């Protein structure tokens, strides 16, 4: 094991950084739990001091009150700004450790005739609660050990300070071993969890997209559009069906390999003209469908489907689709001059509870394009009514 991997609990820095968000989130939760517990304990001690119960000295009321104020301020930051806490994770961890261990040091000083126990307990708690890296943890441990030992010799008798030194060295040795072992196990769990998420994401992508064109496959396209329709967003929505003209002849005369290449070019052209190549497909499960975003899919064979959103008028839609058709017509391949396609378009209205009716109208429009001579765009504006 190298020193570098030891610093990251036996893992490479890259593997460790892959789960940094999980580490920061876990640290924030543990900081909040410890600070809430610490606040509650100090409130109890303050009440005991005021009521002079269980031998708690009233002279320590200001001491408890001070730490209650500090813990409350810290608690507000933790609860009200969780994202900032995670962003400034190391700072939050350092603050939590400083609050708890300084309390332990002052508690030791406040009882000069007794060996310290609270500091040792808090040192153990902090070591098991936070994940950082081993170098930082060792530096923090040695710093607080040194401060604790120095104050013991400064405020206590030599024999008690010597006893404190022995106790803290033994506990710190155990704590360092526990910290490495415990946090290594947790980091391993985080890395495994991240890899599981990555596998799930890859499976989702594979099951959502057509392997030949990188467009949405039939099932995923309809699933997403159905979800988008249920949101009832006010943006203009249109459905377009695209079917290649003479595709059978391309396969017969130029071969199926050329046919596949044509399908790929059509898919790429749709993505480029509609600017769908800018969409982050790796986050498909997190898409905000309330935001107008066009989608395109392959139904199978030489049939494609496009869900257009955010365009203001039929003229704007026609201009965009004509640009797509012109780009296809301009394609030049070996033995093939231009790709021709027929397009059928319909408006999706508020009365379309699902995609089926709109699909039927778009299919009728596509048929009209074929019947009228192919390689053109036809609109079907026969809309359903509320009585339909």
Task: Give me the secondary-structure topology.
Blueprint: H1 3-7, H2 13-18, H3 20-51, H4 61-80, H5 82-87, H6 89-110, H7 118-129, H8 134-155, H9 158-208, E1 216-217, H10 218-230, E2 237-244, H11 247-254, H12 256-273, E3 295-300, E4 303-309, H13 314-329, E5 332-333, E6 336-337, E7 341-347, H14 356-371, E8 377-380
Parallel strand pairs: 1-3, 7-8
Antiparallel strand pairs: 2-4, 2-7, 3-4, 5-6
Helix pairs in contact: 3-4, 3-6, 6-7, 6-8, 7-9, 8-9, 11-12, 12-13
Main attributes?
two-stranded antiparallel ribbon; six-stranded mixed β-sheet; 388 residues; alpha/beta
What does this structure look like?
With 388 residues, the chain is of the alpha/beta class. The chain is 64% helix and 10% strand. The protein has 14 helices and eight strands. The chain has helices spanning 3-7, 13-18, 20-51, 61-80, 82-87, 89-110, 118-129, 134-155, 158-208, 218-230, 247-254, 256-273, 314-329, 356-371, and strands at residues 216-217, 237-244, 295-300, 303-309, 332-333, 336-337, 341-347, 377-380. The strands form two sheets. It has a six-stranded mixed β-sheet with strand order 1-3-4-2-7-8, sandwiched between helices. Strand 7, helix 14 and strand 8 form a beta-alpha-beta unit. Helix 3 packs antiparallel against helix 4, helix 3 runs parallel beside helix 6 (89-110) and helix 7 (118-129) packs parallel to helix 9. The protein starts with a helix and ends in an 8-residue tail after the last strand.
């Amino acid at each position: 094991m190298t020193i570098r991997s030891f610093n990251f609990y036996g893992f490479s820095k890259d593997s460790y950084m892959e789960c940094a968000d999980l580490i920061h989130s876990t640290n924030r939760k543990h900081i909040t739990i410890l600070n809430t517990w610490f606040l509650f304990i100090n409130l109890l001690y303050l009440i005991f001091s005021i009521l002079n119960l269980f031998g708690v000295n009233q002279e320590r009321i200001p001491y408890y009150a001070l730490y209650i104020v500090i813990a409350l301020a810290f608690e507000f930051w933790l609860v009200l700004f969780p994202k900032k806490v995670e962003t400034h994770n190391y700072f939050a961890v350092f603050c939590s450790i400083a609050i708890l261990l300084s309390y332990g040091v002052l508690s030791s000083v406040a009882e000069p005739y007794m060996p310290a126990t609270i500091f040792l307990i808090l040192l153990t708690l902090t070591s098991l609660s936070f994940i950082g890296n081993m170098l930082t943890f060792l530096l923090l441990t040695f710093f607080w050990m040194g401060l604790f030992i120095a104050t013991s010799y400064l405020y206590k008798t030599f024999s008690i300070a010597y006893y404190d030194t022995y106790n803290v060295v033994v506990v710190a040795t155990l704590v360092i071993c526990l910290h490495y072992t415990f946090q290594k196990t947790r980091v391993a769990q985080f890395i495994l969890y991240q890899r599981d998420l990555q596998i799930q994401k890859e499976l989702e992508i594979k099951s959502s997209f057509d392997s030949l064109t990188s467009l949405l496959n039939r099932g995923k396209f309809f699933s997403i559009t159905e979800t988008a329709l249920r949101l009832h967003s006010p943006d203009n929505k249109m459905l377009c069906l695209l079917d290649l003209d003479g595709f059978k002849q391309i396969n017969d005369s130029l071969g199926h390999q050329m046919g596949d290449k044509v399908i790929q070019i059509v898919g790429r052209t749709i993505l480029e003209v509609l600017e769908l190549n800018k969409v982050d497909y790796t986050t498909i499960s997190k898409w905000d469908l309330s935001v107008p975003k066009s989608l395109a899919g392959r139904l199978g064979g030489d049939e494609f489907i496009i869900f257009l959103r955010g365009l203001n008028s039929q003229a704007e839609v026609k201009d965009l689709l004509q640009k797509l058709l012109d780009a296809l017509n301009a394609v030049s391949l070996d033995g093939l001059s231009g790709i021709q396609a027929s397009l059928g378009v319909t408006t999706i209205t508020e009365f379309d509870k699902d995609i089926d009716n709109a699909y039927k109208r778009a299919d009728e429009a596509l048929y009209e394009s074929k019947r009228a001579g192919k390689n053109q765009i036809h609109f079907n504006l026969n809309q359903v009514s509320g009585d339909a």
